[in-house]
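anyone seen this seq b4? input:
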Amino acid sequence: MKRPILIHPDPRLKQVAKPVPDLSDELRRLAADMLETMYDAPGIGLAAPQIGVDTRLIVLDCVKEEGAAPRPLAMFNPEILASSDETSTYEEGCLSIPDQYADVTRPAEVTVRWIDPEGRERTEDMAGLWATCVQHEIDHLQGKLFIDYLKPLKRQLITRKMVKLKRERARG
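predicted toks r here
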């Protein structure tokens, strides 16, 4: 089931999400809903706070090659265990900040640990777009948006555009 995506500014996007104590069928359904919402948007990542759920859950699929099999990941309680000193810069966007993009520099490689939907602990080294995306989504769980990395003037400009967009959508 597709879920509505919150648009910045929304106070729920600035909260630190709560850890998942135990996996349940309800949480597995939430992960499936989030993947459906992300693919429909379309996007490559989505965090539970973006749909108004205060839970440490992210989904991502950074397979972009035409004809390549998708690789959907649902990560409960994801955490970065290690980050490279080397950085990379990607033009990032966000489903909660539609049609706004900016260069963000992050560690080029990260080691991530999470619980998968079957309850198994997983660890993986990620690089390139996967590393950028997982860091972006984990930031959401900390109440941090990609625009928080920007200079104040650029951040305010984007925020004003989002306020205007929300007003226009409310008028319908």
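The chain has a mean pLDDT of 97. The CA atoms of residues 2 and 36 lie 6 Å apart. kinda curious what u guys think
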